[in-house]
Design brief:
single chain; 282 residues; alpha/beta; Rossmann fold; two-stranded parallel ribbon; 23% strand
Length: 282
């Protein structure tokens, strides 16, 4: 989002203009960021937190428009005592090898199995992402995990991943939904980043691809268990957007938590969040 804000700031210097936010302004694969994996998460690292857990590397094959064979890679972790699996979709600029240690700590607090995958062009996965293909991939990933497990399957989406999680909830049966650092529509998220003093000089809209993504629409018929988590001081996805999303969910089994002084990246460390999260996934 900092990249996008820089573009808008520069663009606004040229008087009244319209800026169209495209997929790769919000979705930042590794070739654009220069990301390199520092440390691969493996069974040895897993067992330091979860001694009896089993790790498996996962691969899902798909196609790119140019006929390239894409391998969407991730991992799954199984605990002997767990009866629920959490399918986790990370935020933009996050990767399996950084998310897995974080998920292992959560699993140690309330025993759950978990699975997580890198988006196309991120970390372990090859290919080229865009908004439409990430939606399709989210269903591929869900179907892959659902076919391999028994018991409950809860979908947890953080930031960018919340759009994948909500899309799954609209198109598949899930046993619970967690939306962390989430938003309503991409255009509302983008406009929330524009300082008031730029708004007279620049009009921002989003691409046709991004217009097909709507968390509000995706959850409009959801009646299952759902937890929406926002941070009071989250400048990436302001709390009022998460609250608006929560209000649009018709479920009677929903809970909203705004973490006091919470930022975009520390919400799961809050004790209240941990209690509610464990309650939902059990």
């Amino acid at each position: 989002m900092r990249f996008l804000f820089a573009l808008i700031s520069i663009f606004s210097l040229s008087a009244c203009q319209t800026y169209v936010v495209r997929d790769l302004d919000l979705i930042r694969p590794d070739y654009l960021t220069g990301y390199k994996t520092k440390e691969v998460f493996d069974a040895e690292k897993l067992n330091k937190t979860l001694p009896e857990a089993r790790l498996k590397e996962e691969v899902i094959s798909a196609n790119q428009m140019n006929s390239e064979i894409v391998q969407i890679k991730g991992l799954s972790v199984v605990l002997p005592e767990a009866k629920t699996t959490v399918l986790y979709f990370g935020g933009n600029l996050t990767h399996v090898d950084e998310n897995a240690p974080h998920l292992s700590k959560i699993a140690a607090s309330c025993p759950v199995n978990f699975a997580t995958f890198d988006y196309r062009g991120y970390g372990r996965s090859n290919g080229q992402p865009d908004a439409l293909v990430l939606k399709d991939d989210s269903l591929r990933i869900y179907d892959h995990v659902r076919a391999k497990i028994s018991g409950k399957l809860v979908v947890h989406g953080f930031s960018l991943g919340s759009f994948m999680a909500a899309y799954i909830a609209a198109n598949r049966s899930v046993d619970g939904l967690v939306l962390e650092g989430s938003s309503t529509y991409p255009d509302e998220l983008v406009n929330a980043q524009i300082p008031w003093y730029f708004k007279p000089f620049v009009t921002v809209t989003v691409s046709d691809n991004l217009k097909t993504i709507s968390n509000t629409q995706a959850v409009s018929n959801f009646v299952g268990k759902v937890l929406v988590i926002t941070g009071e001081k989250d400048t990436s996805t302001p709390a009022y957007l998460g609250r608006a999303l929560f209000e649009s969910i018709p479920s009677q089994e929903k809970e909203y938590i705004m973490v006091p002084n919470g930022t975009h990246n520390n919400l799961m460390s809050n004790p209240q969040v941990q209690v509610s999260y464990c309650k939902l996934v059990q």
